[in-house]
């Protein structure tokens, strides 16, 4: 690490980074202090190739440029853009309040651009595993919920609870209930549990249709269908079985002839004519 004096305008600021927030009044006081006393603590940068890339000290850098300083002290380390990302995560998280979205985007970048796992991010940043996992999870929230998180109106824990509601509308309904009723974690947990319970309840059942027809079985001799309880099981020898088939066949022919005669109006001849 080397201490150098450089033109602040030559320091490149990454488009996405974690930056502690100041109120307007704090920023004005900070700018006045830099104009009068200069910068006490050097700005931290990484030299990546020919570029000097800011990793810590954005407020000091902006105030120095606004004050018209042509040279500022910077601590320079050689490295890569990956080094810039993780140094910014470490220093930005420790220096004060910052939008959670900035932390979330930088950690997401570490997983997607540098293909790092959660354990590696924990080692590089000093953040807890739970916090890193939660930051990666909350990407599923609606923009309104993420804005409330960035504004410190809800915490990361509440944001993770809202993720249990998969419907974006339900997420925002729950968010408004948090604001209107000043809910804390337990009240939100209870509400979400009740919503999920209602979703899991079975819906109204369709009206029952007509009952299915009762099963029937064909008679062994006449082949007509009967309920099983109406049929008898009788042991029959081959001779009796033949007689039964013949008798049933004769009865069926006579029954059919009678039906045919009735349909044509024929009259059976009288006996003895």
Protein architecture, described:
It is built from 11 helices and 7 strands. A hairpin with a 2-residue loop joins strand 3 and strand 4 (51-56). It is 51% helix and 11% strand. The strands form 2 sheets. A 5-stranded mixed beta sheet has the order 1-5-3-4-2. Among the domains are: 142-198, no CATH class; 220-257. The chain has helices at 24-37, 58-66, 81-94, 100-112, 118-125, 129-137, 143-150, 156-162, 168-181, 185-200, 238-264, and strands at 2-6, 11-12, 43-48, 51-56, 72-78, 217-218, 225-226.
Reading side by side through the largest sheet, how are the strands ordered? 1-5-3-4-2
- Gap between N and C termini: 140 Å
| Average pLDDT reading | 83
Contiguous runs where pLDDT drops below 50 for at least 5 residues = none
Please supply descriptive tags for the structure shown above.
273 residues; alpha/beta; five-stranded mixed beta sheet; two-stranded antiparallel sheet; 11 helices
SSE order and pairing:
Layout: E1 2-6, E2 11-12, H1 24-37, E3 43-48, E4 51-56, H2 58-66, E5 72-78, H3 81-94, H4 100-112, H5 118-125, H6 129-137, H7 143-150, H8 156-162, H9 168-181, H10 185-200, E6 217-218, E7 225-226, H11 238-264
Parallel strand pairs: 2-4, 3-5
Antiparallel strand pairs: 1-5, 3-4, 6-7
Helix pairs in contact: 1-2, 3-4, 8-10
């Amino acid at each position: 690490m080397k201490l150098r004096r450089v033109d602040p305008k030559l320091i490149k600021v990454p488009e996405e980074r974690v930056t502690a927030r100041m109120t307007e009044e704090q920023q004005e006081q900070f700018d006045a202090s830099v104009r009068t006393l200069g910068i006490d603590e050097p700005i931290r940068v990484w030299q990546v190739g020919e570029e000097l890339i800011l990793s810590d000290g954005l407020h000091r850098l902006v105030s120095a440029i606004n004050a018209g300083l042509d040279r500022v002290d910077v601590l320079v380390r050689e490295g890569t853009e990956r080094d810039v990302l993780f140094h910014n995560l470490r220093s930005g998280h420790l220096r004060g309040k910052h939008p959670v979205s900035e932390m979330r985007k930088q950690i997401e970048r570490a997983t997607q651009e540098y293909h790092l796992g959660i354990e590696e991010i924990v080692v590089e940043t000093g953040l807890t595993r739970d916090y890193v996992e939660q930051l990666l999870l909350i990407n599923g929230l609606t923009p309104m919920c993420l804005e409330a998180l960035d504004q410190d109106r809800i915490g990361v824990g509440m944001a993770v609870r809202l993720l249990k509601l998969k419907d974006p509308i339900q997420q925002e309904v729950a968010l408004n209930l948090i604001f209107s009723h000043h809910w804390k974690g337990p009240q939100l947990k209870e509400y979400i549990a009740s919503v999920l319970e209602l979703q899991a309840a079975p819906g109204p059942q369709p009206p029952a249709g007509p009952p299915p027809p009762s099963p029937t079985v064909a008679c062994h001799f006449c082949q007509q269908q009967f309920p099983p309880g109406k049929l008898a099981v009788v042991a029959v020898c081959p001779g009796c079985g033949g007689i039964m088939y013949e008798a049933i066949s004769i009865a069926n022919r006579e029954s059919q002839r009678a039906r045919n005669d009735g349909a044509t109006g024929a009259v059976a001849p009288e006996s003895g004519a």
